[in-house]
Amino acid sequence: MGRVADLSTLLIYGAIAALVVAMIAFAIDASGKIHRSDSAVRRPAANAGIMVTWLATVFLLLGVITRGIAQRHVPWSNMYEFTVLFTLMGLVIYLVLNARGDLRAIGLFVTIPAVSLLGIAVVLLYSAADGVAPILDHYWLVIHVPLAIGAVAVSSVAAALATLQLAKDYTSASSSRLGKLLRPLPTPAALERLAHRFTAVGFVLWTFTLIAGAIWANSAWTRAWGWDAKEVWTLVIWVIYAAYLHARATRGWDGKRSAYLILLGFLAILINLFVVNYFFDSKHSYALTTHALQVLMS
């Protein structure tokens, strides 16, 4: 299975290369929009960006499939596989939304974080395809981890929309390059409503992630909750998003305040993924790799 694993890695590198090309195409399109006033003009660079993003997504999907064949299980048992999977899901969400409504204008803001995450995955988080850790060889893996991947992917989209909402809000009356670049986007209110929908879905997924994790922990460690660092931070994320939904529904917290809460929740997610996993004592440390620890310590 070594050749299949190598093929998976090559496909993921191919996805990164394609995303870089797409990012350049979206940047060319954005530069052109800054200097032209005719919004009806054709946008070949943006169209090329979307096509290459589709190609990158196919490469990434094939990389995941071949990784699964090499691992003999669905590839979501360590941080490398987790990061690749939720990046793939984020790209799929963007492309589906673009097919329903023109979102080419935010292509640059999608491809930059996607390239960054995949770069982190292959450079820092890479793990050889050597099977599943014994503690993960459990049917709850198929329930708990996909919920967590979906929660991270959906919350990532919500955070991107909240960021664009704030940027659009602060530059709506500006003649700066950023203001001109963001002008084709929907209004801040429309972006906020869309971010709210994604956050509500993400909150449901986080809720079931917590529940499934507690059930699995009770089976694996004979306790449903042990104040493990990973458990605590997942609870923190859930509380932040619960506070956001409560404040928006009962206190009318929309606009900028809601965007800040969404970004606070996503910051907690990033801390949970890339700080807690590496720098806190946790029973979830089996998700790490020797390679990652060597890179961190070098």
Describe what this molecule looks like in 3D:
The chain is mostly helical. Helices cover 76% and strands 0% of the residues. The chain contains 10 helices and no strands. Helix 3 crosses helix 5 (141-171), helix 7 (188-221) runs antiparallel to helix 8 (229-250) and helix 8 packs antiparallel against helix 9 (255-279). The two termini are 30 Å apart. The model is unreliable at 34-40 and 289-298 (pLDDT under 50).
In short:
By secondary structure, the chain is mostly helical. It is about 75% helix and about 0% strand.
Shape category: flat
Strand content: under 5%
Calculate the mean pLDDT score and round it: 82
Pick out the low-confidence regions: 34-40, 289-298
* Helical/strand content category: mainly alpha
Largest sheet: none
Estimate percent helicity. over 70%
Give, in order, the helices and strands.
HHHHHHHHHH
What distance separates the N and C termini? Answer: 30 Å
